[in-house]
Amino acid sequence: MSFDVAVPPAGGTRTERVRQSYAAARAARADELDRWLAGLLGDEPQVALIAVGSHARRELTPGGDLDLVLVHRGRDDIAEVADRLWYPIWDSGLRLDHSVRTVEEGRSVARADLKAAPGLLAARRIAGDRALADELRAGVLADWRADARTRLAGLAELTRRRWETKGELAFLLEPDLKDARGGLRDVHMIHAVAASWAAPGPDARARTAYGLLLDVRHALHEVTGRSADRLQLQDQEAVAAALGLPDGNALLRILVEAGRTITYSADHVWRSVDRFCAPRRRGVRIERRPLADGVVEHGDEVALARGADLDDPTIVLRVAAAAAQAGMPLAPATVERLAERVGPLPVPWPAEARNALVALLGAGPAAIGVWEALDQAGLIVRMLPDWAHVRNRPQRNAVHRFTVDRHLVEAAAGAAALTRDVARPDLLLVGALLHDIGKGQPGDHSVVGAAMTRDIATRMGFKPADVDVLETVVRHHLLLPDTATRRDLEDPVTVSTVVEAVGDHTVLELLAALAVADAQATGPAAWGNWKARLIDDLVRRAGAALAGRALPPPFEPTADQLALARHGGGAVRIAGSRVTVAVPDRPGLLWRAAGVLALHRLVVRTARAVASQDAGTAVLTFTAVPEFGSPPDPAALEADLRRVLAGRLDVAERLERRAASVRRRPGVAVPPPRVTIVDDASATATVVEVRAHDRPGLLWRVGQALGECGLRMRGARVDTLGADAVDVFYVVGEDGLPLAAEPVLAEVREKVLAALR
C-alpha cells in the first residue's frame, strides 16, 4: 500500500522551500533510523523488524512515535532479541510503541483490532527476513479483503465516532491535525479502504492536502518540542513563522483548504463503502431516472444525462439544484466534467440560472454538500468571483462555528426553513448567502458587503427594485438583533429608527428571518429564547408602525389580450414558453388550463389571470418550461387546451392516471405550506395567499380546491421563486361578492391546505 505524498516543487516561495526541507529531513531521518535499527537487529535468522505507522510511511515528524513490530517464526530466544532492540531505542530518548508477534499472531491482531489493521496493511520491512515480512503483509491483506464487508462497515463506524469526538479540522480554531475530520488519519483510512478494492485511493488533491498537514505537524513538533497534534492558538503564530507564512490567519486558511479537501475525498470514499457493504440485490438494475433537463438520478448519486448540453452555462446550477432538491450527492465524475467543460455564466445571469441558485439554496441542509462539491471543483468562485475573498476565511471568535464562507452557506440553508414567513423567499435565500460577503475587507463589513451585494445582485440579473432590497438587507442584517438586545424597546425613537431603516414590511420580514438564520448558523451561543423574544417584540412594534402590508395588484390584461376573446368564443396563443388563453369567463378555467400544462410536463414559472365582469372575459397568461427534455409540440398543447375549454377533456382523470404511474423520490424535507386568507386587502374580492414548495401540478391542485369551494376567480398572480411557489388569488363567492363568513373562510383555508399536502 503506497503512501505517496505530494512535495512542493523545487525553488518557489519561502514556504515551499521550508516544506521541501521538511520532506527532505523526514526522508533522511527515515534512512538513518533504518540503518541504525538494522544494525541493532544484526543478522538474525527467522526474524524480521517491521515498521508501522509514521515510520512505515517514512513520515516520522520530530515528535512522532516509533512504532515497531518484531516478527519471528517461533524462536524461543525472541525475548533476548527484542531486548537488544528496545533498550537502545529507549536509551536514545525516542518514544517507542512495540510488539513481538509470530505471523499468525500478527494476522490475528489485524483481524480483531480495527485500529491496528490499517497500520499492518501499510507495514514496511526495515531489516531481517524479507520472506517473513512479506508473508505477514500478504496474510493481513488477504484476511482484510476476504472479510472486507464486515471490516469496512466496522471501520466506517469507528471513523464516524472519531469525527464526532474530534470535530472537523476545517472549522476548529485549535484543530487536531491527525484525528479531526479531514485530518491525516482520514487519508490513512482511505488507503485502508483502497486496499480492499472497495474504493480508489486518495486523488492528487487529497495527497497534496495530506502533504500540507504533514508539514504543519512537522513545524508544530519542531516549534513546541512536544508530540501533541493539536494546533493551539498560542502556537499558531510561531508555527506560521516557521513555515514562512505571514501570520496565524494565513496558517488557518491553508489548513481549512486542506481539511475540506480531505473531508470531501473521505465523504466520497465512505459513500462507496456504504454501497459496497449494502446487501446485494440480484437482478436489480440501477435506474437512470430524470430529475431535470440534462440531469438524472443514477444509483444514489446525481449525474449528467446522456447527451446533456454542456454548452449551456446554466447547467451547473441546474444539476446542483436537482441534486439538492432530491437530497442526493453529486457524482464526483459529474462535478469534474462540469468544471472541465462548462463555460462561465453570461452577465446578467439568465432567469433560469437565478432560479436554479434559489432552488439550490432552498433545499436547506441538503444544499451544503452540493455547494461544497461545486466549491471543491472551483465552480463557485467561477460563478461568484467575490466568493474568493471569504472562501476558507477563518473567524477567530469562539462564538462562530464556521469559516465565513461556510457560515454563509449554513445561514442560507437555515433560511430555507423560514421561506414561508416572507413574501420573497428568493431574496431571503440570496440575502442570507451574501450577508457577510464584506468580511475581511477594510471598513464595516455590513457597509462594504452592501455595496458588493449591489454589484453581485445586478450581475445575477435581479430587477433594480430587488437589487435595492438585497442591498438594504445586507446593509442592515444586524439591525434587529443589535437594536433588540441593546436598546429600550419602549422608547418610540428605537422603533422609529428601525422603521426608517427598513422602509417597508417586505424588508422587515426579510431581516427578521435573516436574524434567526444568521444566529443559528453562528452557533448555540448566538441564539436563545431571550434573544428570540426581544427580536419578535421589536418586529411586532416596527410592523405596527409601518403601513399595512401591500399585496401585489391584480393582473391587468392588455387590449390585444382582451380582443383575443372576441374571435370564435376564445383564443389560445403559444409563443415559446408563453401561453395566453383568452375566453369567455367560466368557473374552473385557471385550474383546468394549468392541468393541461401539467399533462404536457410543463412547469409553471409565472401565471397571471384576470376576469372582467363587464366584458365577461377571462385572460390567462402562463410562462411554462419543460420539466425536463424538449418542449411539447405547440399544436398538441393548443389542441388539448381547446378541448379542455370545450369540456371534452377530463384533466383530473388523466393527471391522476399519470401520477399513479410515476415513482417520485421523496426529496428533501421542506417547510409546511402556508395559506393565508386576507379578507380586507380588496374591496371587491377575498385574497387567498399560498406559499408552498413547488411541484408538478401544484397550480392545478390549488385551483381545483378553490373550485370545490364554489369560488370564482377574479384574478391571480402566480410566481415560482426557485423551488417555492408564492401565489395570490383574488376570489369571490357564487354571488360575486367577497367572502365574509368566518366558517367559509376557514373551510377555504383547510381545503387548499389539504390540496397542498
Automatic annotation (TrEMBL):
Residues 404-527 form the HD domain. This is Bifunctional uridylyltransferase/uridylyl-removing enzyme. Keywords: Hydrolase, Magnesium, Multifunctional enzyme, Nucleotidyltransferase, Repeat, Transferase. It comes from Actinomadura craniellae. Uridylyltransferase (UTase) activity is inhibited by glutamine, while glutamine activates uridylyl-removing (UR) activity. GO terms for molecular function: [protein-PII] uridylyltransferase activity; phosphoric diester hydrolase activity. Belongs to the GlnD family. Has four distinct domains: an N-terminal nucleotidyltransferase (NT) domain responsible for UTase activity, a central HD domain that encodes UR activity, and two C-terminal ACT domains that seem to have a role in glutamine sensing. Residues 1-290 are annotated as: Uridylyltransferase. Its cofactor is Mg(2+). The keyword Cytoplasm does not apply. GO terms for biological process: regulation of nitrogen utilization. Residues 578-657, 687-757 form the ACT domain. Its EC number is 2.7.7.59, 3.1.4.-. The keyword Membrane does not apply. Modifies, by uridylylation and deuridylylation, the PII regulatory proteins (GlnB and homologs), in response to the nitrogen status of the cell that GlnD senses through the glutamine level. Under low glutamine levels, catalyzes the conversion of the PII proteins and UTP to PII-UMP and PPi, while under higher glutamine levels, GlnD hydrolyzes PII-UMP to PII and UMP (deuridylylation). Thus, controls uridylylation state and activity of the PII proteins, and plays an important role in the regulation of nitrogen metabolism. HAMAP family: PII_uridylyl_transf. It holds the Pfam family ACT. It catalyses: [protein-PII]-L-tyrosine + UTP = [protein-PII]-uridylyl-L-tyrosine + diphosphate; [protein-PII]-uridylyl-L-tyrosine + H2O = [protein-PII]-L-tyrosine + UMP + H(+).
